[in-house]
Amino acid sequence: MEFKDHFKNIPCLETVRLKLNAFEREDMEEYFEILRDNRVQKYLGGGVPLFDKEPNITNWLNNVNDRLLKRRVVFTWCVGDKADGRILGRIDLGGFVKREMAEISYHYAYEVRGKGIATEAAKRVTEFGLNDLGLWRIQGLVHIQNAASIRVLEKVGYVREGVLHHYPFGREFHDVVMMAMVKEKPPG
Ligand SMILES: CC(C)(COP(=O)(O)OP(=O)(O)OC[C@H]1O[C@@H](n2cnc3c(N)ncnc32)[C@H](O)[C@@H]1OP(=O)(O)O)[C@@H](O)C(=O)NCCC(=O)NCCS
Questions:
Q1: What local confidence, expressed as pLDDT, does residue 185 receive?
Q2: Mutate which of 88, 92, 107 to test ligand 1's pocket (most atoms within 8 Å of Cβ)?
Q3: What does pTM read for this prediction?
Q4: Which CATH superfamily, name and number, covers 3-182?
């Protein structure tokens, strides 16, 4: 499959415990509950704005599942628990630069922290990016105090490249750690 062919629909990805799918309307209230928790929003650079009223919900669903996808801006997945269908969080792969590079980001419900969920999903999305899309670099920018998220990316195999000082992060400026997974090019 060519790079451009992946951007027709949000691909359904699976791991042992998780299902990564396009967001649907019936997922949204559970997702908003996650976003309403300040503990989730703490290191997201001013937070993900809550858009829990119409027409914002419809517009957002159209954006992530159609407009932004077709323009090859971002993949946005809803992360669900395979066992009971519960919505656990969200993961994105976007900011494509040519067909070479993209950025990963994610957030999950406070109640499911520490069970390896973020690591499992980030590993799967990273594989999709490197193997299916054929990217050479995936990076993750993490608030310098967000040790858990730095650890998530380290566990997936990302390398800490350094600190960017007073760097644009979400809607704010922070010191952030640049984590990156770079595929080795064959010699020559
Ligand atoms: C950060 C976040 C993604 C982690 O998700 P998670 O499902 O708990 O992550 P995992 O269980 O896969 O791994 C967390 C790791 O961080 C470690 N950790 C947790 N808190 C830590 C802390 N304060 N300091 C150091 N390590 C910490 C855990 O021990 C675990 O590592 P281990 O397996 O080696 O023990 C989740 O808490 C979250 O969504 N936070 C809010 C949004 C956010 O910050 N997103 C990231 C933006 S870059």
A1: 78
A2: 107
A3: 0.97
A4: Gcn5-related N-acetyltransferase (GNAT) (3.40.630.30)
